[in-house]
Design goal:
392 residues; TIM Barrel; Arc Repressor Mutant, subunit A; nine-stranded mixed beta sheet; 14 strands; binds iron/sulfur cluster
Amino acid sequence: MTILSAEPGGIYIHVPFCVRKCAYCDFYSNTDLSLIPSFLDALCREIRRADAPPGLAFDTLYLGGGTPSVLAPDQIGHILEAVRGRFAVRPDPEVTLEANPGTVTPGTLAAFRRMGVNRINIGVQSFSEAGLRFLGRIHTAEEARLAVRWAREAGFENIGLDLIYGLPKQTEGDWIADMAAAAALAPHHLSCYMLTYEAGTPLTRRMAEGRFRPLSEDRVGGLFLTTIRFLAEKGYAQYEVSNFACSAEKRARHNRKYWSFAPYLGFGPSAHSFIPPERRWNIASLEEYLAFSAAGKPAVAGREVLSYAQQIIEVVFLGLRQNDGIRISDFEEGFGLGFEETFGGVLSELRKNGWLKTDDASRCALTPSGMLFLDGITSMFVSMDFPESPPM
Ligand code: SF4
C-alpha cells in the first residue's frame, strides 16, 4: 500500500556550480565553471533517457543548486527545452530559478524571464555585511537589493528571498533588522533558515577550533518564534517551518511537493527522485556523473523502496513541518490505520505541552512552540511500533 498523492509531479534540476563555496554549505557543487558545457550535455542526455510513470504530468520545474544563475540564459533555455521535449508539462507550470546576487544582471534576469522562468528565488542570506562575510557569501547587501530590483524590472511577479538566522552573537534586534530589510523589498516569498553546522564544512571546522561560539539553542529558538511573529506583522504567513508567503498562491508549489509526498524526478549530480514508494539519488560528484553519462549508464548512487512503516514515518515527519499539518482522513485512508488509535499516547502528551493545534480536528498540526521541537516530536511518533504491512 502506498499513500499516493493525487498531485502532478515536479522536476528538479541540480546545477552543480558555484562561483565559490560558502563557508556553511554542504550542498554538492563545483567551482570549475569550465565544466558547464560538458555538464549540460550529460544533463540533457539524462533527461532524454528518463522515463516518468505512465500518465504522470508535471506542473513544476525547479532549477536549484549550486547556483543556476551562473548559467547563461540560453543554457537555461536549453535545459527547459529538454524537459519539455521529454515530459508532459502542464500548461502554466511554476518554473523556479535559484539565483545569487553577484551572478545576475538586468539583462540576464530579463532573458531568464523570456525563457519561461516565472519564479526567482534569490539567495540573500543576510543584509548585514559582517553576516555575509561570516557566511562566506560572494556578494554585498547592496548587490542583493539590486538583484531584487532588477528581477522585478525584468517582469518577475513571484520573487522569493532566502535568509539565514542564528549567526553567532546575533541579537533579536539584528535579526529583526535583517527581516525588515527583506520585507522592505516586498518579495512574495521568504525562506528563513536556521544556521546549521554541517559536518565537513569550513564553518564547522572553525567552530571546532574554537574560533567562535555558536548561538545557544535557546536564543536560536527565540529567533524562530520572533520570525513567525515579525513576518506575520509584515503580511507573510508561515506555511512550513522555514517558509513564509504573502498569499496562498505565492507558496512554493514545487517545494510543497516534497512535503506532501508527491512524486518528483531529479536530474544532475546529487539530485533525488521520488516516485512513491521508491526514492533514488544520483552520484554527488560531477566528474563521476560525467563519466557515467559518457559510458551511457545512469548516474544513480542508490535507491530505496520505502516500506509501509517508513512511509508512515515520512508522512508524519513531512506533515508536521507544515502549518496545515497532516490531514487525518488522508492518513487513515492511505494507511488503513486510525490516527487517534495509533498515536493517542503521543497526541495527549503533545496536547499537554501546548504543542498541538486544537482548532481543527480534521488535521494534526503543531503550534509554533511545537515546531521548535519538531525533531523530538517526530522521534516520539517514529519510536512507535508500526506494522510492516497494512492491517487486513
Ligand atoms: S551559493 Fe548556495 S549552493 Fe553555492 S556554496 Fe553558497 S550556499 Fe552553497
